[in-house]
Amino acid sequence: MSPPRSPSPPAALPPSLSSVQIPNLPNSAYYIPSFLTSPEESFLLHKVLSAPQPTWRHLSHRRLQAHPSPLTPQNILLDIAGKGLPDWLREPVISRLRSIPVEVATSSDGDIEDATTEGQHTEDQDNGKRDDIFAPSPHTSPNHVLINEYHPGQGIHAHEDGDAYFPLVCTVSLGSHTVLDVVRKGVGEPHSGGWRILQEPRSLLITTGEMYTGCLHGIAGVEVDEGLNEQGIVNWGLLGDRGEYAEGWKRRGTRISLTYRDVVRVKKVGKAFGGLMR
C-alpha cells in the first residue's frame, strides 16, 4: 500500500527554459534543481522500490525497470491494449515537464532555438501561448520511462541514447546526487575530458539537440565524487544547494533515475499478444 501523499506546494518552475540553460556546453542542456518536492520524491521512491521483483531487470552492475514495457530488439515500443505509462509515473512529472515555460521553438532534430531569430512566430506564440518541450516530438509527450538504480560505486559506461527516441531526454534524480560525465563523440571516455554535470536529488536534467546527437554520457563507478566546485562542475551556478558540496567532495547514496523519453516507433497490439510476450 502506498504511503499517503502529504499536501505540499508545487515545486517552483523557472521563469523560462533559457534561464536554466547550462553554460559552456554544446546546445542544449538545461538544469532545474528542485523539480520535485520532498514528499513527491518519497512517494516515487516508494513506488519504485516496492515494485514486484519480476518488474526489475538485473544487469551486471545495476538493476532497472522499463515502463510500460521494454523496447523490442527492433527498438519498437509495444502498446499493449493502450496500457501506457502507470499513473504514478505520469503525475506530477509529465504535467510539470509540459508546464516549463518555453519561449522558444524546437526544431525537428531536437535543438531548442529562439523562434524570433529568423523573425518567425508560430500561431500559438502570436496568441500568447507557449509550446511545451515535447510539442515537436512524435507523440507530443513522453511515452516511455526507464528507471535505473545505482548503489554507491555503480555507474554506466559512456554511451548515446540513439535514434530509437526523439532527441529529447528528461532525467529526474531521486535519493542521491550523481555526477554525469559528458564528452563529444570521438574524443574518448568521459572521465578523460569533457564536462561534468552534478545532478542533485529531486533535480531535472534536460538534454536535446547537439547534447543528444553529438555527445556521449556516462557515470563513473565511484563511491565518492571529488572536484565538486565551480571549476569542475559545469552547472555549479544552477545548483539548488551548493553548501552540500562546499567541501569539494560528496559520498554517494543510492540513486534512482527516472528517464522520460518519446519512443519514435510504437506498435499497437492486443492484450492476448502482450501476455505471450511476458
UniProtKB/TrEMBL annotation:
Composition skew (Basic and acidic residues), residue ranges: 120-133
Keyword Iron: yes
Subcellular location: Nucleus
Signal peptide (UniProt feature, chain positions): none
Keywords: Dioxygenase, Iron, Metal-binding, Nucleus, Oxidoreductase
Residues of the Fe2OG dioxygenase domain: 141-264
Main location: nucleus
One Pfam family, short name: 2OG-FeII_Oxy_2
GO cellular component terms listed in the entry, alphabetical order: nucleus
Residue numbers spanned by region Disordered: 105-141
UniProt GO MF annotations: dioxygenase activity; metal ion binding
Entries under PROSITE patterns matching the protein: FE2OG_OXY (PS51471)
Xref: InterPro entries: AlkB-like, AlkB-like_sf, ALKBH6, Oxoglu/Fe-dep_dioxygenase_dom
KW Kinase (keyword) present: no
Family membership: Belongs to the alkB family.
Protein name: Fe2OG dioxygenase domain-containing protein
Organism ancestry: Eukaryota, Fungi, Dikarya, Ascomycota, Pezizomycotina
